[in-house]
Amino acid sequence: MRRCVYFILQTVLLAGCVSSSDGTMNRSLDSFRGESACYNRETEPYTAVVDTHLHYRPFDGKAIPFDEMNTYLSRTSVRFVNVYGIGQMLPANSSCSDYSKCPGIPVLPTTRNDFVNAENMLASAPDDLHLTLSMTFTDLSNPESTIALMALYEKEYPGMFHWMGEVNLVKQAQFNNHHVPASPQNIEQWADFMVELRVRNYPITIHSDIGNDANPTYYLHLMEKALARYPDNKIVWAHMGMSYQQTKMKASEHIAILSALLDQHPNLMLDISWRVLDDYYFSKKENQPLYVAFMNQYSERILPGSDFVAFRGNSYEVYQRELNATGRIHQYLDDNAFRNIVLGENYFKLLNLDYQAPAVCL
């Protein structure tokens, strides 16, 4: 059993770790407030304490109940979560639950999931997790209404939302469901809401495919345009730009693209969510050392995440499998990168949270 260190916090004796149902020990939320015992990588989990990419709502509205999803999280290493909806939903009267099997059925941006998440937070915010609500409604190819809807969110749920995304710049997986990539002209039209995001100091997570196996960098110019046009915004590039449409890019080429953009744009961050990265890139023997070296070098620019979608049929075991898969590469990071990425230091700094990652035991 993992060791549990007790410490005094606000004159109350609090356990520095909590027991899960399988007998392992994970740190409590309070253990990230101020100084805490160092993190022992030999005995504590390699999975992240923060899941910056978790969809509490699915495409069809049939979700794992909010409290149940939070119970799943409490059984893992995760204590900090970005509460994404899914900004694009199937029609309310559709019998389809998997858009990929329903070509022609629209999957279009909506506020529905975000409002459900906000109502759930008002009714039942957990004490043992830190949840950050994110606005996922934005249609980047039709951005005109975004600023007005942001004002509506603030009117209805003042001070509750602190992030935008995941929003789609280009997502090939939804081309058969009426998704239209944003054009360079559309990117220019983001100006008003990107200013508002800067004023509020909110990050924005953008899904933007680099390309596909036939044309490896076909869509890269769109993300390059967004970064060049909005250099002062905190932009998080979801999934390192990868997708199931692109599983054969050379690791060296992928890393070169990411490195160049990170060097050019100091406010860019990457998320390493979605198991497509581990399945097709990180886990390959010849690739792993390259990605580990890359993450060690750019350790202050990377955020972890599962990309789990809380469909009603999913379970705790499914979430834990996704967390393990997306976090597998964490085991090979150096201690500095492990603290920044896995133990949440990057996330805390990005959102100016009053938490800190523990030091890694020497």
UniProtKB/TrEMBL annotation:
Residues 171-310 form the Amidohydrolase-related domain. InterPro entries: Amidohydro-rel, Metal_Hydrolase. GO terms for molecular function: hydrolase activity. The keyword Hydrolase applies. It holds the Pfam family Amidohydro_2. Coiled coil: none annotated. SUPFAM superfamilies: Metallo-dependent hydrolases. It comes from the Bacteria. Signal peptide: none annotated. Keywords: Hydrolase. This is Amidohydrolase. It comes from Marinomonas ushuaiensis DSM 15871. The lineage of its organism: Bacteria, Pseudomonadati, Pseudomonadota, Gammaproteobacteria, Oceanospirillales.
